[in-house]
From TrEMBL:
This is DJ-1/PfpI family protein. It comes from Chryseobacterium panacisoli. It comes from the Bacteria. Gene3D superfamilies: 3.40.50.880. GO terms for biological process: regulation of DNA-templated transcription. The lineage of its organism: Bacteria, Pseudomonadati, Bacteroidota, Flavobacteriia, Flavobacteriales.
Length: 215
């Protein structure tokens, strides 16, 4: 698949794999897609899988056919790694084939300067790769303790929505991926673009409106 883009376009690869959490994937993806509508050619967003075979999303509710496989995708400037349920994540990090293909592909690009953006339990997938070492990191609250146990060289932070460590961005659970994506859009394209996306989303972000009992 060919895609014509200008030199300022950022290639953003969204990793898909069996049982991926749909909102982890589609929340940030839609933020980047909307940013591209507002400021065209800012991003080239695509999905990438181990192969181009369709993968099931969480609970087998739908299938996703990756745009590219690991061998054919364009060089990513950013890789977005959505999560899955904790049991599935633990299976993946113990799967030698997954480590030697998908995780090695991520690590190779990270070592060459690609930004890695994990959503929810996606950070847990990187345990043992060395990518998390020396960084402040976070994940879904259900896996914070396990993340800390498996990554003793990293500093696990609690009670945050997302953490920006330059080349590594990690988030808390599920909807925090939307917040981090908006943040990253703001860094690159400015707050006006973020405000427009929030309006289009009708998204309240972390704002909590008072109830009648609170007034």
């Amino acid at each position: 698949m060919k895609h014509i883009q200008n030199s300022e376009t950022m290639n953003v690869a969204f990793l898909v794999y069996d049982q991926v959490e749909v909102l982890d994937l589609n929340g940030p993806l839609d933020v980047f897609v909307k940013a591209n509508v507002i400021q065209p050619d800012s991003y080239y967003c695509f999905t990438v899988g181990k192969t181009k075979e369709a993968v099931y999303t969480e609970a087998n509710t739908m299938t996703v056919i990756p745009t590219y496989d690991l061998q054919t995708c364009p060089k990513p400037d950013m890789i977005v790694i959505p999560g899955a349920n904790p049991e599935q994540i633990m299976k993946y990090i113990q799967d030698e084939d997954f480590r030697e293909t998908v995780l090695k592909w991520i690590k190779n690009h990270y070592d060459r300067g690609t930004v890695v953006f994990t959503v929810c339990t996606g950070s847990m997938l990187l345990s043992g790769t060395g990518i998390l070492d020396g960084h402040d990191i976070t994940t879904h609250s259900m896996l914070l303790d396990v993340l800390e146990q498996r990554n003793p060289e990293a500093n696990v932070i609690r009670n945050v929505r997302y953490l920006d460590q330059g080349q590594l961005i990690t988030t808390a659970g599920i909807t925090a991926g939307i917040d981090a994506a908006l943040y990253l859009i703001g860094k690159r394209l400015g707050q006006e673009t973020v405000d427009t996306i929030v309006t289009l989303f009708e998204y309240q972000n972390t704002l909590c409106l008072p109830t009648e009992n609170d007034r």
